Amino acid sequence: MVPARVRGGALREDRIKVLVVEDSAVVRELLVHLLNSDPEMTVVGTAHNGEEALEFVKRHKPDVITMDINMPRMNGFEATRRIMETAPAPIVIVSGSWDASEVDTTFRALEAGALTAVARPQGPGHPEHERTARELIQTVKLMAEVKVVRRWSRVRESGGRDRGESGVSIPPGVKQEARAETEIVSLGASTGGPMVLHAILSQLPKDFPLPVLIVQHMAPGFIQGFAAWLAPVSGIPIKVAGDGEPLQPGHAYLAPDGFQMGVTRDGRIALSRAQAENGLRPSVSYLFRSVAEVYGRRAAAVLLTGMGTDGAAELKSLHERGALTIAQDQNTSVVFGMPGEAVRLGAASYVLPPEKIAAALVTLAKERGKPEKPAE
User: Fold this and answer.
1) Could you tell me if 191 and 306 are in contact, meaning their C-beta atoms sit under 8 angstroms apart?
2) 259: left (phi over 0), alpha (psi -120 to 50) or beta
């Protein structure tokens, strides 16, 4: 464990204090250099494994932690779990390998309380160096502002839980707005999205009658592992989307790395290498615009936690066409950027926490096919 060197021998109190946890000396040096290059941050320590990280956090309480996954003695998942149970702090997983074991462990770390995962920055001279370095710095600064709470050791409950029968109340207007003609659900998420999608999909019943299209901003190489991680808890089958495949009722489709995902008028998925929107491919904006053009008021769209504004203007377009539109509320959003912009624009019919979003979608499905009541 190495304390940061601070100019003048004193640490500026207004700087974000970062702990870097990484077993590779080369990568550790790169991360320290990049984070210290930002005037608003300073690396106050480094740890070579999870055991050292846990000890440092208890003693020094950093503002935010960057966490490697594969480390000796204690890996990133176990370190995250122990930190969140004993001395909670914002944790950003920094991953540089796309093998199945590391991807799986990354998502387990998110389940244990890590806020998000980013790709390990490329070194100087690499064409992606500036972009990946900027993403790391921006994410660490933003996550330092998130208030985290202690995660108690999880005790598994005996018996199953009926999906879609949570008893969570939803605004009465959702049931009134549910239409027999609704044909598709589209979801967009970024930072903090994996756990929210985990919560929503786990509440969908097996007989959910609508296809669900999902754009989740994610580091390249993670999307297949994300689908595999969601599959055991999702009430409906989930997969990474393929170009031209027909939309099936009660199936969820994740946008793949590096493609924009839209829909065709004959009910198929359309993938393309169209230019990035809001710097992103896949982009929520692209998906929502495509759904608006093809389905209009026959759609339901949900914008979840994430930095930036991707999807907000297009959610408004869906709202104006008569679609059922929902934004995640601020209290449950890791970052209120995307849903917050939607709220500011008046794009959301409802602003709800994840459990109520899931309940609203289940209500929508139950009302589908029922004859609309005549106006009194």
Assistant:
1) yes
2) beta
Asked if 87 contacts 62 with a C-beta cutoff of 8 angstroms, the reply is no
Give the right CATH number for 13-143 from 3.40.190.10, 3.40.190.290, 3.10.20.600, 3.40.50.2300. Answer: 3.40.50.2300
Give the whole-angstrom CA distance, residue 343 versus residue 35: 33
Task: Report helix, strand or coil for 289.
Answer: helix
8 A C-beta contact, residue 106 and residue 81? no
In the chain, domain spans:
13-143, 172-367
Q: What sections of 241-351 are H helices per DSSP? A: 284-295, 312-320, 337-345
The amino acid occupying position 144 is A
Per-residue buried b or exposed e for 194-230, using 16+ beta carbons within 10 Å of the residue's own CB: bbbbbbbbbbbbeebebbbbbbbbbbebbbbbbbbbb
**Residue that the structure tokens 């106050």 belong to:** 44
Could you tell me the CATH superfamily of domain 172-367?
Methylesterase CheB, C-terminal domain (3.40.50.180)
Residue positions annotated with a catalytic role: 190, 217, 310
Query: In a structure prediction context, what are the per-residue pLDDT tens digits for the chain, which is 376 residues long?
Result: 555 433 333 455 689 999 999 999 999 999 999 999 999 999 999 999 999 999 999 999 999 999 999 999 999 999 999 999 999 999 999 987 666 777 888 999 999 999 999 989 999 999 999 999 999 999 999 999 998 877 665 433 333 344 444 456 666 666 656 556 789 999 999 999 999 999 999 999 999 999 999 999 998 888 999 999 999 999 999 999 999 999 999 999 999 999 999 999 999 999 999 999 999 999 999 999 999 999 999 999 999 999 999 999 999 999 999 999 999 999 999 999 999 999 999 999 999 999 999 999 998 887 765 655 544 4
Using DSSP, state whether 261 is helix, strand or coil: strand
In this prediction the pTM is: 0.86
Q: Show the beta-strand stretches assigned E in the chain.
A: 2-3, 16-21, 41-47, 64-67, 91-95, 116-119, 184-189, 212-216, 238-240, 252-254, 260-263, 269-272, 299-303, 324-328, 350-352
13-143 and 172-367 share one fold: yes
